[in-house]
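@channel sequence for tomorrow's demo:
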Amino acid sequence: MSVNNRNNGFTLIEVILVIVVFGVIASIAMKSMTSSVEQARFEATADELNELSRAIVGDERLVSGGYRTDYGYVGDVGALPSGLDNLAANPGGYSTWNGPYIRSDFTENTDDYKKDAWNELYTYSGGISISSNGGGNTITKRLANSVNDLISNTLKGIVRDSGLSPPGDSASNVTVTIQYPDGSGSITSSSTSPSGSGEFAFAGSVPIGLHFIRATVSSQDDTASKYVTVNPGKTSIVELRFASNLWGGAASGDTSGGDSDIQLVENTEGFGGNCSKIEFDIINTADVAVDLTDMTLSWASPEAYYDRVKIGGTLFNQPADGRGSDSAAEFTSTLTLNPSQSATVEISTFDTNRTGPGSDVNMANTTFTITFSDGSTFDVTMGVCP
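structure tokens (generated this afternoon):
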């Protein structure tokens, strides 16, 4: 009778192979876990950089009545913070500081907003960018294109009486004053007088934010005032209209509509990148909102056809075939302009061919007559192609 003495256990080589396989699997799992953790830290840091940016320059998503309402630290103070501490604590008894603009997520670590997901301090020293270096690669959030875009903007406007007449020879008796934070915790003001046509400007001096502006007339008990939004890197437009018929215009309170409601904002005509694209700003000068459903362009020469209309950055018309002179561009949706609201009109691209790609047409020195569906009409004259 034979006996089977075969050993059914693992050999040393088999045990070693199993250990090696488990080691490889564990290494792959650790690398995958590390990669996931790093990606989560990157995303958390990017999100917090966005929150810090909005704390400094405001949240562009907060809008009421068609107007942005939040401009953060800069909008309240009129200057960039010298450091991130200024977002949580008043830097020096500033009366215009309205923080805290950002809050800590942890009561036991009130400085956590200053650190990235790797627990490293953000780099910020009062400029237009915040950076994180904790992950080995720099993550940067820019607040604006330049410091001037935040604290040195231009505001233009026009003054009229209740009959839509400008001050004319009485312009020197009109004073327009705007109030805004001075960057040191207080409110300052700047004043100017309009031209005879009623136009005025505060050039390169106004920080972003919601600011109070007022027009007064010497020896007259009448004031025109409102709040105006100043956005970064853009020229803001405002109309101030007196309640009285000061300078011989139409009857007071005439808001019936017609060819005076939507008007061209002077000196805004220009070419949008090349001479076959034109731009200009319009403003609603009525006391009520105006609804627009189409716009007609008329011009004598050259022969050309345009293929799209944008107003306020929104595409309102893009027909299959180009539009020529005297053709109405019907809007895809109703455009509503509130009282004193302005918008930039972009018309492109003027082409030699109505139905397909041709050659761009230079529209320099061309005078356009613009007519909106409400009857408003005005001329826009383009200058020399730059």
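heads up for whoever presents: The radius of gyration is 31 Å.
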